[in-house]
């Protein structure tokens, strides 16, 4: 290692003061982590080819069948490093109350000291990669830039797909001067030496000891949600865990919908929905803008405009099939990185629910597949792929102005009580519906699966500040000039007494979205109840769908007693945040409790 190799270089080649802060930070990080080499990523094909070749040589990647999956790779993670680690994820604000009961908190000085001790010398023998990236279209005023420093070439390759990474992002940073700092090392991949630290007041992230997506691709959950939610509050916009899709009706009119569901609840499937045959024949189309994150801000006309800050999909592989999500399957046929899926004997990727008639030979750990020892693919195995490869990718996704949002949808996995769909009476009621969201936990985070927990706006693991303040921020958008979207709640996961799902879901969810657009346009009918406006079965187009009496009753019904218990629990939940909880939200909860009592 030469002394020169350690010296950070200014890629722009000038002593530009706006990059001085970046150069200084890279130098400080290099002094702490002591890498052998520093590489500034330009995002070029040549750079990517060289990284892939290096990872094939050292076993980080395996080449998949070139005939069936050209330029696609399999990565097997450390078996203890397969999901986000919420218990090791901290929001480090000066005042603990600013992080709120919804986050694990540590004082900034203590957090820096703890995590810097792990970073000390951790890149010896490794290359330090500097990844300038832009979240959102390069030329969009809604976009924000960051720089991730990492010692993982796998992270570089994934960030190249998931963000606008390289020279263009660096040029924007040079112009703007500001960027989010993200320091990452895979460390020893030891779960006892793993910390994901956020310093929203410093626009800084430090992540150590994990190579898994949500912990390591810092542009995603760490920047685009935890840090961005904090920035958004200060700057008057919203950073949300939402997909964005466009629905084009036979008249050629497109309405955009943003929808929040917890991780692994079908956001990618909904974002890439294929209309049922009757709708297709009539000329309906669905356009994918994003499948995970949505940044929105009011435009000059008072409507909310949204961009997808990401450039790719980091989707859950298991369950993805030609039936459940043909668009996703088409997207991942080439130039895709698979993580922790199984393999067929001829090196094709395989997962439970793929249903293509093939059989796995090797499991996600690289052992011969043995059904006694668990699934072939890890339940949280993933694909990383450019959004541009998706057949339904919306051309509007690259529009710097974003797309106008007509409806916001909240949803979760609720096997009982919650009907298929209902509509909020107004914005405040909608914010309460989002704040009260509950869902069963999934494999996207470590911990028990299938446990019911409150996950407001699907942001429980991702809001970078106190939820009470966050709800207040949401309420603040209801100004006199605002033309806000309507808010809805959906539940695709309602179960019957025998435990089976009552609603077919997938493409048929368009029937529910069509009703929502009808409501937005003032055309569709609904029944008023204490929990909001509900359609009857007759208000939806259910042509070709055969619902049992039980399904019809549970999907479109309103169960007063169950909702009374639910609203008592929502009241307790809001009270848990103490005096910071906005009074308007508490009043709304009380209004509904009173309406439920009236009978
Ligand atoms: O791993 S991620 O956090 O990026 C995916 C998810 O859990 O939504
Ligand atoms: Mn997500």
Automatic annotation (TrEMBL):
Q: Where does the record place the Phosphoenolpyruvate carboxykinase C-terminal P-loop domain?
A: 237-591
Domain Phosphoenolpyruvate carboxykinase GTP-utilising N-terminal residues, every copy:
25-233
GO function term, MF aspect, one: manganese ion binding
Keywords assigned by UniProt, alphabetized: Cytoplasm, Decarboxylase, Gluconeogenesis, GTP-binding, Kinase, Lyase, Manganese, Metal-binding, Nucleotide-binding, Pyruvate, Transferase
A single Gene Ontology biological process assigned to it is: gluconeogenesis
Q: Where in the cell is it found?
A: Cytoplasm
Task: Tell me its cofactors.
Answer: Mn(2+)
CDD domains hit by this protein:
PEPCK_GTP
InterPro entries reported for this sequence: PEP_carboxykin_GTP_CS, PEP_carboxykinase_C, PEP_carboxykinase_GTP, PEP_carboxykinase_GTP_C, PEP_carboxykinase_GTP_N, PEP_carboxykinase_N
Q: Name one GO cellular component term.
A: cytosol
Recorded catalytic activity of this chain's protein: oxaloacetate + GTP = phosphoenolpyruvate + GDP + CO2
Tell whether Cytoplasm is among the UniProt keywords: yes
The metabolic or biological pathway listed in the UniProt record of this protein is: Carbohydrate biosynthesis; gluconeogenesis
Cofactor-binding details, from the entry: Binds 1 Mn(2+) ion per subunit.
The residues the record assigns to binding GTP are 264-269, 382, 413, 506-509
Q: Does the keyword Cytoplasm apply?
A: yes
Its EC number is 4.1.1.32
Question: Where this protein primarily resides, as one coarse class?
Answer: cytoplasm
Catalytic residues?
A: 265
Q: Which residues bind Mn(2+)?
A: 221, 241, 292
- Sequence positions that bind substrate: 84, 212-214, 263, 380-382
What functional role does this protein have?
Answer: Catalyzes the conversion of oxaloacetate (OAA) to phosphoenolpyruvate (PEP), the rate-limiting step in the metabolic pathway that produces glucose from lactate and other precursors derived from the citric acid cycle.
- Quaternary structure (record): Monomer.
Task: Tell me its family.
Answer: Belongs to the phosphoenolpyruvate carboxykinase [GTP] family.
Q: Per its record, how is this protein called by name?
A: Phosphoenolpyruvate carboxykinase [GTP]
**Source species, please?**
Marilutibacter alkalisoli
